[in-house]
């Protein structure tokens, strides 16, 4: 057992070294990535109970020329740490707004659909956020009402007063607001009541075992009931199977996102998906 312990520790140390090497490498390349804009927005459809598209979530991809594809879960936290998240946020807003405005013009994107854009807590509280969004809207000509900003409950942690004020300002612009990963963050039932939000997104961790795990089912049911009581929409994430869909429908959740409907995909592929839907 002792032997195993030591090996485990050595392994752990090596692991940590690798992680920090990788980090340093990434830190340098992330600066370059921002200046050269090596980012691509992918689009994942959001669907209603009939399977119709109701919008998409913008999910960022970084194609590093040396190290290949780096997932957002890895570079977003790093970007926050080294102060690049605001530049990256602007890139996402500009790219997505321009793309969706073009699609609207071409008739690919339907009026009433929403493009969901992730905004991290740090980004959300930054004084330039509204100006950046405004720039993206004016430059693209996209109406504010086509945008849905996804924030997590954690925005309330640092400065809840400021966060509430920001939310109100965003809503005043006509932009929609969703709470992402609902149920996993800083639980704030106290605030939830007063939050100017349109939608709760049920975290995929509760959906994954929905069929077999009664406690996940109870949680999802509670979230749906709460959304109903607060008069906000509810969307389930991580819908991967027909069984997930059927279960959610029976629980009166009628909007979804997940591999069952489509993975996050490049813009060109999203156009194909929309065309296929229109053909039906
Ligand atoms: P998120 O906002 O919760 O996004 C949903 C994640 O779940 C995405 O991972 C998506 O690819 C994945 N997903 C969607 N459907 C399914 C499904 O049916 N099954 C499973 N297992 N997974 C599914 P992705 O694209 O790797 O993004 C990870 C996280 O990175 C996002 O989580 C979000 O927090 C962050 N992120 C992505 N793009 C941006 C961005 O532009 N700005 C900021 N601030 N964060 C971003
Ligand atoms: Ca999200
Ligand atoms: Ca989420
Ligand atoms: Ca997440």
From TrEMBL:
Transmembrane segments: none
Residue ranges occupied by any EAL domain in the UniProt entry: 23-278
GO terms (BP aspect): regulation of DNA-templated transcription; signal transduction
GO MF annotation, one: cyclic-guanylate-specific phosphodiesterase activity
Keywords assigned by UniProt, alphabetized: c-di-GMP
Keyword S-adenosyl-L-methionine on entry: no
Keyword flag 4Fe-4S: no
GO CC terms, sorted: membrane
Protein's UniProt name: cyclic-guanylate-specific phosphodiesterase
Organism: Marinomonas piezotolerans
